[in-house]
Structure to design on (664 residues):
């Protein structure tokens, strides 16, 4: 995991080019400063690395397989590999981050954990590690998401977490994040905030990217065994805040030959107001303590995004991605709700894998390009679709 | 000279600063509220510019801000309303808001509009002092706008001194680690922290805010620093059915001893 992407690492103030930073009210200063000062020392220590990798192996089940999807490959005319983050314990990549952050919180002596969640995957992953480490856990979740991701609410409760409903704004991920930050302001001494993506004030974007970087580290090793080459031609990943994409891109950022493509949630289309494609329709601004590309009004009010996928329903994006987009190191395309749904059904029928709606956005990129027979394409399958069955059933009923 | 600075020369103690949300309860109530606050004896007035995602605010200010935004308040609308504010009030006037609307309006244009309306200070809780110093300090000076920064019980002495060196007008001491509108009142922790601040003999006066809602709270604060800031308690008491919004009665309760212990 120890890799220096100098060009794509934040500067000491947490900026990736013009994006990032820590635009926080003074009430959070000491907590954030402590994290800034300590995070690299802690996560690069031998002690941390040993525990982190041990847990990833024995508890999460890593390395996650890199599966060559032959039916999908045949259909699209390329060698398509799926990085199976859906097979991790709790069903998504989110746990790579929460395992790391709970160890960090322990090291910092924190007794109480808070988190925000959209799809509920990060909430479940946080509740899980809190049970494992016997720490108190409060998860904020928008009331809209509590309804559309009900199975995950039940899982969090069974794991012993308290789920608090966020009732402001669009009642989704943005609002849950606001509530989590307010909670942290009110409990500065004993609480660690486990943020769920590469967003928020510095050092979170870099911290979470480093904890997710295990994804691309494994891809390199696994590809070498399977193809004789450690570098793919393409890496595809969906981007909400951008943590699974950051992890899948991380060790390829300095490899110019590897084409990195992110899928943003287009919602009903980027020409409509019902979208969550922050890079395509956003403008530079501040959300949750971070300068990034942001969906907002001309007056600087953050607007309410729309995506069929709760995990991508966020008006901002991690500053690393804003920078990769601006500097043209990576490209980002928007995928509509319908395209994602179709891609999910396609994977189910061709490969026997039901993906999360978020991950289906990455899969939908396959139909948007033409591929060459020898192209090695890695799709990061960030999570599994159990939580989305209600949405998938609705689509099935419509088709019947 | 800036009005905030002149004010503290003339009245160094027992100050009451009041925060309200512009465009609340009605889009056009901004000026009437300022005028009521002025006449009721508020010493400084903080005009809240609402933001969609106010991280440092509790439910009361969140709610008033949402109504103001639904009413159509924007930075441009506010500046239009404030064009004539100096015919109504000679008190120090500040805007308190969040960084993003300031950036989107354009920092230079924002400060220029503030100056031309005759405003005196700007509080942006999510503007880090370091970024202010690097990017905005000269601009604030050019338009004679006082930058006001927050300190909290968690702020170290060296950082308090740094913030003091950048601040003009006053320093905003947050009474406890909380969002606005907390109901805990002023506890022992807050008082000993204010005592410590006093002992630092800072360059700037200190006003204390967050969680001040009663006569008693204000008296305790007055004993420790140059004044108190009241926000959520006022907004809770704004009564849009009354021509004066119930403001004079609220300020009177807040500043005068009474036997009525139900003051909230
Ligand atoms: C399966 C899955 N993929 C992707 C995401 C989006 O997050 P990120 O962009 O940080 O990977 C989520 C978020 O909930 C998720 O559950």
């Amino acid at each position: 995991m120890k890799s220096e992407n100098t060009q794509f690492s934040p500067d000491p103030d947490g900026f990736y080019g013009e994006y990032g930073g820590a635009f926080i009210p003074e009430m959070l200063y000491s907590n954030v400063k402590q994290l800034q000062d300590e995070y690299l020392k802690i996560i690069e220590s031998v002690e941390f690395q040993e525990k982190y990798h041990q847990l990833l192996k024995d508890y999460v089940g890593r390395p996650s397989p890199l599966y060559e999807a032959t039916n999908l490959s045949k259909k699209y005319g390329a060698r398509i590999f799926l990085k199976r983050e859906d097979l991790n314990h709790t069903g998504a990549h989110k746990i790579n981050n929460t395992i790391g952050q709970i160890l960090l919180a322990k090291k910092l002596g924190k007794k109480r954990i808070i988190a925000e969640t959209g799809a509920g995957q990060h909430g479940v992953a946080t509740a899980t590690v809190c049970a494992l480490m016997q720490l108190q856990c409060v998860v904020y979740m928008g009331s809209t998401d509590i309804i559309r991701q009900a199975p995950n609410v039940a899982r969090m409760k069974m794991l012993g977490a308290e789920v608090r409903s966020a009732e402001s704004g669009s009642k989704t991920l943005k609002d849950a994040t606001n509530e989590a930050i307010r909670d942290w302001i009110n409990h500065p001494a004993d609480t660690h905030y486990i943020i769920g993506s590469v967003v928020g004030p510095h050092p979170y974007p870099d911290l979470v990217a480093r904890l997710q970087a295990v994804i691309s580290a494994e891809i390199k090793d696994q590809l070498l065994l399977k193809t004789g080459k450690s570098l793919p031609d393409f890496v595809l990943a969906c981007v909400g805040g951008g943590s699974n994409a950051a992890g899948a891109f991380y060790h390829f950022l300095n490899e110019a030959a590897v084409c990195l493509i992110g899928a943003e949630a287009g919602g009903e289309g980027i020409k409509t107001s019902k979208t969550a494609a922050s890079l395509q329709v956003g403008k530079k601004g501040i959300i949750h303590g971070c300068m990034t590309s942001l969906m907002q009004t001309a007056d600087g009010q953050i607007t309410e995004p729309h995506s069929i996928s709760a995990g991508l329903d966020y008006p901002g994006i991690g500053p690393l991605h804003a920078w990769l987009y601006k500097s043209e190191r990576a490209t980002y395309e928007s995928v509509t709700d319908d395209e994602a749904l179709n891609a999910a059904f396609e994977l189910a029928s061709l490969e026997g894998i039901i993906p999360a709606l978020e991950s289906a956005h990455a899969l939908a990129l396959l139909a948007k390009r033409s591929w060459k027979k020898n192209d090695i394409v890695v799709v990061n399958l960030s999570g599994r679709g159990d939580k989305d069955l209600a949405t998938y059933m609705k689509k099935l009923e419509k088709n019947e | 000279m800036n009005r905030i600075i002149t004010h503290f020369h003339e009245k160094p103690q027992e100050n009451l600063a009041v925060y309200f949300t512009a465009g609340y309860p009605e889009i056009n109530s901004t000026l009437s509220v300022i005028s009521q606050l002025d006449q009721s004896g508020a010493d400084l007035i903080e005009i809240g510019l609402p933001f969609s995602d106010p991280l440092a605010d509790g439910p009361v200010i969140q709610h008033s801000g949402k109504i103001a935004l639904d009413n159509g308040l924007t930075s441009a609308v506010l500046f239009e309303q404030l064009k004539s504010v100096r015919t109504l009030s000679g008190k120090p006037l500040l805007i308190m808001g969040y960084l993003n609307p300031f950036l989107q309006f354009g920092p230079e244009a924002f400060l220029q509009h503030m100056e031309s309306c005759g405003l005196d200070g700007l509080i942006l809780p999510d503007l880090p002092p370091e970024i202010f110093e690097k990017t905005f300090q000269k601009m604030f000076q050019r338009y004679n706008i006082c930058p006001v920064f927050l300190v909290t019980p968690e702020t170290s002495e060296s950082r308090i001194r740094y913030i003091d060196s950048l601040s003009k007008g006053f320093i905003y001491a947050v009474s406890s680690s909380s969002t606005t509108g907390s109901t805990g009142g002023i506890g022992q922790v807050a008082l000993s922290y204010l005592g410590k601040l006093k002992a630092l003999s800072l360059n700037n006066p200190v006003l204390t805010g967050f969680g001040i809602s009663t006569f008693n709270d204000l008296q305790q604060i007055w004993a420790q620093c140059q004044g108190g800031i009241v926000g959520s308690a006022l907004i809770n008491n704004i009564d849009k059915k009354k021509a004066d919004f119930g403001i004079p009665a609220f300020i009177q309760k807040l500043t005068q001893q009474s036997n009525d212990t139900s003051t909230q």
Chain B has a mean pLDDT of 95. Chain B has twelve helices and nine strands. The pocket of pyridoxal-5'-phosphate is lined by residues A 92, 118-119, 121-122, 197, 238-245, 311-312, 356, 358-359, 382-383 (CB under 6 Å).
